From TrEMBL:
Lineage start: Bacteria, Bacillati, Bacillota, Clostridia, Lachnospirales
The YrdC-like domain, residue ranges: 15-201
Keyword Cytoplasm: yes
Any one Gene Ontology cellular component term annotated for this protein: cytoplasm
Organism annotation: Candidatus Mediterraneibacter caccavium
Keyword tRNA processing: yes
Keywords assigned by UniProt, alphabetized: ATP-binding, Cytoplasm, Nucleotide-binding, Nucleotidyltransferase, Transferase, tRNA processing
Catalytic reaction annotation: L-threonine + hydrogencarbonate + ATP = L-threonylcarbamoyladenylate + diphosphate + H2O
Pfam families, alphabetized: LMWPc, Sua5_C, Sua5_yciO_yrdC
Protein name: L-threonylcarbamoyladenylate synthase
Compartments (UniProt record): Cytoplasm
Family of this protein: Belongs to the SUA5 family.
InterPro entries: DHBP_synth_RibB-like_a/b_dom, Ptyr_pPase, Ptyr_pPase_sf, Sua5-like_dom, Sua5/YwlC_C, Sua5_C, TC-AMP_synthase_SUA5
């Protein structure tokens, strides 16, 4: 089958294209089209054989009901019976829009559309292209997401074509969708109404209008032994080809844990992906890193989620690590989709972080212009068994300045550089539980301990590696003195690297 692709502008709809697509649906064919949530795979909702074609094209289980899309509120009465009174107020506020409501079905709706259930799920989309298509098709269009079952839902026509080209009659290309997550599903056949799938419309928004609503307890996590109320939610959905794991904890722990996992994969030669946000993107270095949006506006995350999951398929990664998101408001819908995509695979960030004793190593000298930055740069050349942030500080830094020129000359001769170094003052903020402070001599160590106390990881470099070799101070001396200092530092830092790796092997 050749799949026709027709461009269409929702601000200037081509009626000829809409009529062509409507005729395909009336004849029992399949047309993918944009909605404000995701792209839908349209069929005539009142024809049993059209439903069978939909299931076949998607590879969708036949017990997974299809949502019936309407363009006029009055049409609801033709496909649903015993409609609760609260429906009017919900429809007035949220239709057209990303809300699906479940009712008892009328005889007009075939069981093929409802997955064998006596209920029907109904939505009125707000996208102008979707509504015009529904009208052109006769008023009732069933439309699950237009993707291969289990794959990330499509938010562009290109995504639809990736999955369904050659399997359906037409794709209406209306550009990227606005929301990016499927509609909220609210079951109106129970009291109080129950949310079966979270989306852009939240429980709090419902309760402001109609009072109490309940939430299916199986939506997040896999602890419940009960089956989801919505049949489709029992299947693994939205999944990339790679294994997806959600790293859970407070945000700092999540960042540290993902860094540690990504570094381990890098050392082992494994290609992994990281789902980050605009706020956390700078903290990651290893793996294929993708920005999913900003935590300040979760709508950006929702809009990008499926796109990012699909992009990872093109990157040939074997594992994806994702940060988690607050389970409230739009975050509840985001986490629901992530959980389904991950098959409920989660990692405790705290458990990963606990495995690493030190995360930052700070060398301290008097002015942070020569010996401490030299030691830090030497250590950075080692590919250690764990990742560390390596830096340096000085106890007397009156203003930021570059590294000593003689120190830089020696480093360049060893194919290293301090060209980007700027001296920085040591302060209390540098004393963290997971930071190892290594001073160049005893005087600096004693000054730190006397000023800040003894409850920190503060050692001289010699003391920590168990080597009494004195580190000479070359300040004011010829270039050769800096060379001699470099050689001593190189020997001590080599022992430091070996000790750090041995601590990892011992699990310390």
């Amino acid at each position: 089958m050749e799949t026709k692709i027709r461009k269409i502008d929702k601000n200037q709809i081509d009626e000829t294209v809409i009529r062509e697509a409507g005729d395909i649906l009336k004849a029992g064919g399949l047309v993918a089209f944009p909605t404000e949530t995701v792209y839908g795979l349209g069929a005539d909702a009142l024809k049993e054989e059209a439903a069978l074609k939909t299931y076949a094209a998607k590879g969708r289980p036949s017990d997974n009901p299809l949502i019936v899309h309407i363009a006029e509120y009055e049409d609801l009465k033709k496909i649903a019976v015993n409609i609760p009174a609260e429906t009017d107020i919900l429809a007035a506020h949220f239709w057209p829009g990303p809300l699906t409501m479940i009712f008892e079905k009328s005889a007009a709706v075939p069981y093929g559309t409802t997955g064998g259930l006596d209920t029907v799920a109904v939505r009125m989309p707000s996208d102008p292209v979707a509504r015009e298509l529904i009208r052109a098709a006769g008023g009732f269009v069933s439309a699950p997401s237009a993707n291969t079952s289990g794959r990330p839902s499509p938010t562009t026509a290109e995504h639809v074509a990736e999955d369904l080209d050659g399997k359906i009659d037409m794709i209406l290309d209306g550009g990227a969708v606005d929301i990016g997550l499927e509609s909220t599903i609210l079951d109106m056949t129970v009291t109080p109404p129950m949310i079966l799938r979270p989306g852009a419309i939240t429980a709090e928004m419902f309760e402001e209008l109609i009072g109490e609503v309940s939430v299916d307890e199986t939506l997040l996590g896999d602890e419940s032994k009960k089956a989801p109320k919505a049949p489709g939610m029992k299947y693994r959905h939205y999944a990339p080809r790679a294994k997806l794991l959600i790293v859970e904890g407070d945000l700092r722990e999540e960042i540290l844990a993902i860094r540690q996992l990504a570094y381990a994969a890098h050392r082992e030669g494994r290609r992994i992906g990281v789902i980050a946000t605009a706020e956390t993107l700078p903290f990651y270095k290893y793996g294929v890193i993708k920005n999913i949006g900003t935590r300040e506006n979760e709508k950006t995350i929702a809009r990008s989620l499926y796109r990012v999951l699909r992009e990872f398929d093109e990157e040939d990664v074997e594992t994806i690590y994702s940060e988690s998101f607050a389970v409230q408001g739009m975050g509840k819908a985001i986490m629901n989709r992530l959980e389904k995509a991950a098959g409920h695979l989660r990692i405790s960030a705290a458990a990963v972080v606990k495995q690493q004793r030190y995360r930052r190593i700070t060398f301290v000298s008097r002015t942070d212009s020569a010996r401490a930055p030299m030691a830090a740069e030497i250590l950075r050349q080692y590919e250690l068994k764990q990742e560390y942030v390596v830096d340096s500080r000085g106890l007397v830094v009156l203003f930021p300045e570059p590294a000593n020129q003689k120190a830089e000359a020696i480093m360049k001769s060893a194919r290293m550089t301090l060209g980007d170094h700027v001296s920085r003052q040591f302060g209390e903020e540098n004393l963290q539980e997971d930071t190892l402070i290594l001073t160049i001599d005893e005087n600096q160590k004693n000054k730190i301990l006397s000023e800040y106390g003894t409850g920190y990881n503060v050692y001289t470099l010699n003391e920590f590696v168990g080597d009494s070799t004195e580190i000479p101070d070359p300040y004011g001396q010829p270039l050769t003195a800096y060379g001699e200092c470099f050689e001593v530092l190189r020997g001590l830092v080599k022992k430091l690297a070996e000790k750090l790796d041995s601590l990892v092997e011992e699990g310390l």
